[in-house]
């Protein structure tokens, strides 16, 4: 009897994860921490350096604290002093609210800026040391099959791998989602993001302030922040355009095009564009919220389940929260489909609300008319003068959430 139970438990513990991005690698670490064997199937042949930054808000950092990775991430990241909102052309400061220690006091964890490559490196190295050989690169999953006993991932090569659960962490163009719900296409939002990372020693007086700063403009906005102890400056500059729809981290654009998009903007923005070695652009796609994220032993997470515009800097944070919630729901539960249904029930409303908030921020950031600008930025300016903590209060529901505490048995 004991042996039969043991065999059953062993059989329960094999998780396949399609996609080795931020979401998939975090899910592997969370599932491993909750006692699962994990295999991550990543289609890229290597985890090549991605030259862009990421804001890790306190709600995401709580998961990394639970995994014991916060110290390593803090050592390679940058802790911003505050959040700012400025006008893109004049640079006029509408709002400044403190972060740093305030983030820990208010939301229980730090706010961190990190280079994507540093985060991926940290996650992949940790996975390798905790579950050696778990990450299989150059391995694309095309579809899945399942029955009552387990789930099988079918690879591009025709090889099959079986497990007890399959997680689709394969991003906005997810093959797992297509297999689950049928093929469809995310919609181009009419926004293109330029991005660049520049050493601050090239920027002199035009170095961006050591804060997470959003710069507002007509039909466009920019976000600046610092990385790697402050030595690098990161630029994400989003402009409404309908003539370009390639989604990639590595599609190069020209300096002239980027400068033309931000003519007349504050020198902090234009200097970043001028000094960047490479300027890359990313067409922003969106998808209406899905009603279903699970099918039996298969679940979607991160951008595969709920892609979102980067206007709240929460896409990766939601994937990281999903990762913890998935593992917590699967922990100790022998009914995998039931555990996955519980995972969706726990996550759907929050992810959908953040998706909606990100979409709404596009309007706030890109006000085109004088009336719209006055109506939107006037109260911000006033709040910045009389009660800057309003800026923090508005983030409480996002940054203050603790998925680790929320899923504790
Ligand atoms: P992805 O990062 O897309 O990873 C999916 C992985 O799956 C990839 O490695 C891919 O190669 C692999 N894959 C795809 N198909 C297959 C397959 N068939 N088989 C196997 N593997 C496959 N979020 C934040 O929280 N903070 C920010 O500051 C922030 N800034 C952003 C700025 C910009 C300009 C953009 C565009 C996004 C930003 N985001 C931010 C959002 C964030 O980058 C994404 O939400 C996050 O990367 C999603 O992670 P993921 O693991 O779900 O998907």
Word description of this protein:
This protein is α/β, with parallel strands linked by helices and 409 residues long. It is built from 15 helices and 19 strands. The chain has helices spanning 2-12, 22-33, 58-66, 70-76, 101-107, 116-130, 175-181, 255-261, 267-275, 315-330, 336-365, 370-386, 389-393, 396-399, 403-406, and strands spanning 14-18, 37-41, 53-56, 82-87, 93-98, 112-115, 135-136, 141-147, 150-155, 160-163, 165-168, 187-199, 212-217, 220-227, 232-240, 252-253, 279-286, 294-295, 298-300. It has an eight-stranded mixed β-sheet. A six-stranded mixed β-sheet has the order 7-2-1-11-19-18, sandwiched between helices. The protein binds flavin-adenine dinucleotide. Residues 18-24, 41-44, 54-55, 140-141, 169-171, 175, 193, 195, 236, 282, 302-304, 310, 313-317, 319 line the site of flavin-adenine dinucleotide.
Task: Quickly describe the structure.
With 409 residues, the chain is α/β, with parallel strands linked by helices.
């Amino acid at each position: 009897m004991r042996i039969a139970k043991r065999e059953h438990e062993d059989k329960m513990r094999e998780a396949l994860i399609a996609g080795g991005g931020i979401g998939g690698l975090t899910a592997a670490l969370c599932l491993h921490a909750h006692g699962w064997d994990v295999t991550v199937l990543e289609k890229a042949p290597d985890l090549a350096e991605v030259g862009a930054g990421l804001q890790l808000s306190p709600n995401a950092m709580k998961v990394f604290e639970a995994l014991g990775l916060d110290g390593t991430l803090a050592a390679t990241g940058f802790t911003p002093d505050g959040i700012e909102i400025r006008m893109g052309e004049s640079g006029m400061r509408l709002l400044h609210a403190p972060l740093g220690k305030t983030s820990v006091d208010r939301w229980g964890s730090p706010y961190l800026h990190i280079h994507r490559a540093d985060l991926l490196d940290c996650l992949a190295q940790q996975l390798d040391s905790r579950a050696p050989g778990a990450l299989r690169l150059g391995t694309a999953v095309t579809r899945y099959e399942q029955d009552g006993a387990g789930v099988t991932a079918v690879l591009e090569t025709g090889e099959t791998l079986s497990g007890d659960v399959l997680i689709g962490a394969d991003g906005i163009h997810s093959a797992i989602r297509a297999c689950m719900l049928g093929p469809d296409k995310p919609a181009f939002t009419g926004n293109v993001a330029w991005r660049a990372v520049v050493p601050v020693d090239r920027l002199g007086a035009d170095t961006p302030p050591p804060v997470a700063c959003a710069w507002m403009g007509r039909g466009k906005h920019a976000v600046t922040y610092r990385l790697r102890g402050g030595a690098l400056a990161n630029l994400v500059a989003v402009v409404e355009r309908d003539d370009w729809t390639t989604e990639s981290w590595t599609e190069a654009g020209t300096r002239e095009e980027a400068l033309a998009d931000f003519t007349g903007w504050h020198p902090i923005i234009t200097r970043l564009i001028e000094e960047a070695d490479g300027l890359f652009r990313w067409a922003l796609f969106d998808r209406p919220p899905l009603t279903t994220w699970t099918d039996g032993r298969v679940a979607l997470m991160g951008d595969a389940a709920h892609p979102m515009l980067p206007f709240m800097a929460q896409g990766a944070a939601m994937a990281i929260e999903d990762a913890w919630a998935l593992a917590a729901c699967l922990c100790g539960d022998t009914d995998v489909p039931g555990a996955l249904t519980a995972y969706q029930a726990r996550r759907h409303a929050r992810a959908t609300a953040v998706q909606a908030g990100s979409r709404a921020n596009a309007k706030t950031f890109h006000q085109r008319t004088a009336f719209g600008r006055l109506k939107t930025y006037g109260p911000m300016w006033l709040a910045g003068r009389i009660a800057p903590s309003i800026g923090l209060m508005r983030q409480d529901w996002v940054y203050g959430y603790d998925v680790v505490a929320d899923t504790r048995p």
